[in-house]
């Protein structure tokens, strides 16, 4: 029975902040905009400097008027912690799922998702908060089409272009002195503030009316009930000279942290500045110790000192993080107090630390492939106890790794850049974060060209070609691998030629030219055999077996797949053994040998689950689901395919749509497409 209407409306808003005061003009504008809505969605854009309370205003108004939006309250942040815009397609996917649209019906293209979202909320009274927007175009793609949806946008930028869409624009000013004093009283105690009016006035002036700054000082006073307000005020006044706030937002925010910063021991101050130069959103204590060249224990003590004065915040897994304003303050202090060469040395230290970790992780995640970039001796033993820890690090620190890579690209640190791209391969094979990975690889190819390392360039181009083929961009895949093949021939490097040939086979298979694909795979296998590379031979034999199965040459296919599985078992490659066995089991299932196929597929599924490999787990689940359907086990088949589809959707892989099309609940055995095995992976 459909229980969609029994589901409570979604409420994604953060909790309203304590001590909210003032902002009557902004709240009134939001009220008036909602009340006079006509034939278009009411939109209010709240802009202003960081820390001025834009999000607090939006959350307060939407929370106070929740009864106006029985369809729910949606929220998303449009800026990544590193400063990059969140892709609109990702935001739309989240909104659609939240309001009840089945994930498997959501199209992959952002434009189609936008249209689906507009249709889904056309007659629904919803409030939407788009927080920290980057551009008018980013917001415009997320706007509903009907007047039943209220949209509030917050941004640090002037999004004047949204006025063309009928948006009301309001630049949120700092609090007035009276409002700031009231807020300080809410946080530190009204009686305490009233007892020392001059000292409270000095703090209000120093903070420049920024609610975030007032909140930090108010919390400091509340945590120190025996400390006088005058003492706090005098401390700030001494460091600022006149006791007045600075004239612009950077210095106003700096003033908020002056007392805490100037009271820090030298080592803690150095750690604070170093955190400001870290490219990513959070940083591990180990990385800080390595870059600073100090013992971990001493750095931990410095971190504790910073946490105690609210200049750092503890994060999971021995990491620390800073609010955006704090990061800016720390970075500015580093720029003021360090020479440019010293600043660059810190950033390069972070870059090399992450690179060594990435290479050490790749040694454990994908140990079968040698790299051109060399891992420092013993690095993986120091960094990760095992493969699971290496995978967890990649998954957890992916945003910081990307930020570091982007900084390396910006500074043209080409050696580090191409080595990052090479070391990302193992994790990518299992997790397939296509869009950011493609951007990184493209930059890596250019870096390899500038470094004049043609074999590295060829490798990165083949990696690009692999991803393009997976995304059905076969012309791009062919172009990249033809260049890789040419480079391999020019350098007389057999492994590079073999890889390019195999990848050209993948592209030909995707384009439907199975005889050409088989030819490429067999050329690559012969070349690998001549070079004495048994794993390469086994990979090509598995791929040849899959193509032979699609051509209906079942016995030849079984021979190739069995040989590939046997070789991978002997080489100690559990993933590729499982994949070859999966392909063979799929063929056996098609021949009616369902029990045999199911046993093999269940074993393969356990292998890839144990390796924490979302992509290959989805691949085996898809095959197992198909085999169950062919055996007449409809419920199990649909369940496995649904799980595979969810994994592919999370990875942004096109195969999600294929499963949705072929694994439909009402399909009978034998109605699931052509004779292909549906693998086609690496």
Describe the protein.
It is a single chain. The chain has 682 residues and is mainly α. It starts with 23 loop residues before the first helix and ends in a 20-residue tail after the last helix. The longest helix has 26 residues, at 340-365. The strands form two sheets. It has a five-stranded parallel β-sheet with strand order 2-3-4-1-5, with helices on both faces. β7 (313-315) and β8 form a beta hairpin.
What is the structure about, briefly put?
This protein is mainly α. Helix 23 packs parallel to helix 25, helix 27 runs antiparallel to helix 28 and helix 27 packs parallel to helix 29.
Q: What structural class do helix, strand and pairing data support?
A: mainly alpha
- Rg computed from alpha carbons, rounded to a whole number of angstroms: 29 Å
> What is the approximate shape?
globular
Beta-strand portion reads: 5-15%
Strand adjacency order, main sheet:
2-3-4-1-5
Name a few traits of the molecule.
single chain; 682 residues; mainly alpha; 5-stranded parallel β-sheet; 3-stranded antiparallel β-sheet; 33 helices; 8 strands; globular
């Amino acid at each position: 029975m459909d229980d969609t209407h029994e589901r409570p409306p979604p409420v994604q808003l953060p909790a309203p902040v304590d001590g909210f005061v003032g902002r009557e003009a902004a709240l009134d504008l939001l009220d008036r905009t909602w009340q006079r809505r006509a034939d278009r969605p009411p939109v209010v854009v709240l802009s202003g400097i960081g820390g001025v309370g834009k999000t607090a205003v939006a959350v307060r108004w939407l929370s106070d008027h929740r009864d106006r939006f029985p369809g729910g309250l949606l929220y998303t942040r449009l800026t990544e912690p590193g400063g990059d815009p969140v892709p609109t397609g990702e935001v739309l996917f989240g909104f659609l799922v939240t309001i009840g649209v089945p994930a498997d019906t959501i199209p992959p293209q952002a434009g189609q998702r936008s249209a689906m979202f507009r249709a889904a909320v056309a007659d629904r009274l919803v409030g939407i908060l788009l927080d920290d927007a980057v551009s008018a175009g980013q917001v415009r793609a997320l706007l509903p089409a009907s007047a039943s949806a209220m949209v509030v946008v917050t941004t640090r930028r002037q999004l004047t272009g949204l006025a063309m869409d009928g948006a009301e624009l309001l630049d949120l000013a700092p609090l007035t002195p009276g409002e700031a004093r009231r807020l300080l009283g809410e946080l530190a105690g009204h009686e305490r503030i009233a007892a020392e009016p001059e000292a409270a006035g000095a703090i209000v002036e120093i903070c420049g009316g920024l609610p975030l700054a007032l909140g930090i000082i108010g919390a400091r006073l509340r945590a120190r009930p025996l400390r006088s307000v005058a003492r706090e005020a005098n401390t700030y006044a001494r460091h600022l000279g006149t006791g007045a706030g600075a004239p612009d937002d950077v210095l106003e925010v700096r003033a908020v942290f002056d007392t805490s910063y100037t009271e820090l021991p030298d080592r803690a101050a150095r750690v604070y500045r170093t955190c400001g130069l870290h490219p990513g959103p959070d940083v591990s204590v180990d990385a800080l110790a390595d870059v600073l060249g100090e013992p971990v224990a001493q750095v931990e003590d410095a971190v504790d000192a910073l946490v105690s004065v609210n200049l750092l915040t503890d994060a999971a897994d021995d990491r620390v993080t800073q609010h955006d304003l704090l990061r800016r303050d720390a970075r500015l202090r580093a720029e003021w107090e360090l020479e440019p060469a010293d600043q660059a040395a810190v950033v390069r230290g972070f870059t090399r630390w992450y690179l060594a970790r990435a290479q050490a992780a790749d040694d454990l995640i994908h140990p079968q492939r040698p790299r051109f970039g060399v891992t420092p001796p013993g690095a993986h033993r120091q960094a990760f106890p095992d493969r699971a820890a290496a995978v967890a690090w990649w998954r957890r620190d992916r945003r910081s790794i990307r930020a570091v890579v982007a900084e390396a690209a910006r500074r043209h640190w080409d050696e580090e850049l191409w080595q990052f791209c090479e070391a990302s391969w193992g994790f990518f094979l299992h997790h397939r974060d296509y869009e950011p990975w493609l951007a990184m690889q493209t930059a890596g190819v250019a870096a390899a060209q500038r470094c004049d390392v043609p074999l590295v360039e060829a490798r990165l181009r083949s990696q690009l070609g692999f991803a393009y083929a997976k995304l059905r961009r076969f012309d791009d895949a062919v172009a990249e691998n033809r260049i890789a093949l040419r480079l391999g021939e020019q350098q007389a490097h057999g492994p590079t030629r073999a890889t390019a040939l195999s990848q050209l086979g993948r592209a030909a298979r995707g384009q439907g030219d199975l005889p050409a694909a088989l030819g490429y795979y067999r050329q690559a296998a012969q070349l690998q055999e001549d070079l004495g590379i048994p794993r390469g031979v086994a990979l090509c034999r598995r791929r040849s077996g899959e193509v032979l199965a699609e051509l209906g040459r079942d016995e030849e296919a079984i021979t190739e797949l069995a040989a590939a599985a046997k070789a991978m078992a002997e080489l100690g490659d559990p993933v590729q053994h499982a994949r070859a066995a999966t392909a063979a089991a799929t063929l056996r299932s098609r021949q009616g040998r369902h029990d045999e196929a199911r046993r093999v597929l269940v074993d393969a599924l356990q292998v890839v689950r144990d390796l924490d490999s979302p992509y290959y787990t989805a691949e085996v689940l898809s095959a197992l689901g198909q085999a169950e359907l062919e055996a007449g086990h409809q419920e199990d088949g649909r369940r496995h395919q649904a799980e595979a589809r969810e994994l592919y959707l999370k990875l942004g892989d096109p195969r999600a749509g294929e499963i949705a099309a072929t694994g439909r609940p009402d399909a009978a055995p034998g109605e699931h497409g052509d004779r292909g095995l549906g693998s086609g992976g690496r």
